[in-house]
Amino acid sequence: MKIATYNVNGVNGRLPVLLRWLEETSPDVACLQELKAPDEKFPLQAIQDLGYNAIWHGQKSWNGVAILAKGEIQELRRGLPGDPDDIHSRYIEAFVNGIVIGCLYLPNGNPAPGPKFDYKLRWFERLTEHAASLYARGLPVVLCGDYNVMPTEIDVYKPERWVEDALFRPETRAAFKTLVDQGWTDAIRHLHPNETIYTFYDYFRNAYGRDAGLRIDHFLLSPQIAPKLKAAVVDRHVRGWEKTSDHCPVWVELEE
């Protein structure tokens, strides 16, 4: 079973790229972030034409998450618990093929310090609490998406330039570690512990050409599913396509 995550950076503006990638990679499940479209503008027909069912949680101009699946998909929740006033579309969760899949788009948090960084840390706390409740149920769970955090120095090109950035500040990295330490497996690092692997390349300064990237798109696997992990891959070449997202698609393969 192949499960993917992809921050599309605008699902309609980059629809040809998304569809091309779906046809090429053919994941069984694809979690999308940054739809940047209200619910009624989600390109459902184009997705269905490729054989996918879909659920989505949209928002005009910003945020937005979706889960696509070749088989049956049962929505479990949209939005994280813990803050009824949070109107950002950043989390959606479904039951697919016996697995609970959480698709998330964690806040960027810049500039830091400041209100946006405070919101990021609060959101991280809510995610950690919800993850703990999923973990406690003993179900096979995959939490994937754009976490907007580089966990360690190996996950960022020239880390000394990022020390004050919200994605790399000690508080953010500590929050990610607290989450993982519940017992989750970071899929990429589990299979590639020492490799330089990036999932995001800025549009500026030829970052992709220079391989000056960040690893901010992650898969966390619960103990019930981590032993089934066979592969964890970044489709880096997709970042080189015309009119593409600044993120690369990432996918894991699990034994059935």
Automatic annotation (TrEMBL):
Q: Which organism is it from?
A: Mucilaginibacter myungsuensis
What InterPro entries does the record point to? AP_endonuc_1 (IPR004808), Endo/exonu/phosph_ase_sf (IPR036691), Endo/exonuclease/phosphatase (IPR005135), ExoIII-like (IPR037493)
* Cofactor, how bound (note): Probably binds two magnesium or manganese ions per subunit.
Identify the catalytic residues: Y105, D146 (proton donor/acceptor), H247 (proton acceptor)
Task: Return the annotated site residues (Transition state stabilizer).
Answer: N148
* Cofactor field: Mg(2+); Mn(2+)
* Family annotation (PROSITE patterns): AP_NUCLEASE_F1_4
Show the GO MF annotations. Answer: double-stranded DNA 3'-5' DNA exonuclease activity; metal ion binding
**Class of enzymatic activity (EC top level):** hydrolase
Question: Which keywords belong to this entry?
Answer: Hydrolase, Magnesium, Manganese, Metal-binding
Which SUPFAM superfamilies does the record match to this protein? DNase I-like (SSF56219)
Q: Where does the chain bind Mg(2+)?
A: N7, E34, D146, N148, D246, H247
Site positions (Interaction with DNA substrate): H247
Recorded protein name is Exodeoxyribonuclease III
Q: What is its EC number?
A: 3.1.11.2
Instruction: Give GO BP annotations, semicolon-separated.
Output: DNA repair
Task: Please state which protein family the record places this protein in.
Answer: Belongs to the DNA repair enzymes AP/ExoA family.
Limits of the Endonuclease/exonuclease/phosphatase domain = 4-247
Q: Where is this site: Important for catalytic activity?
A: D217
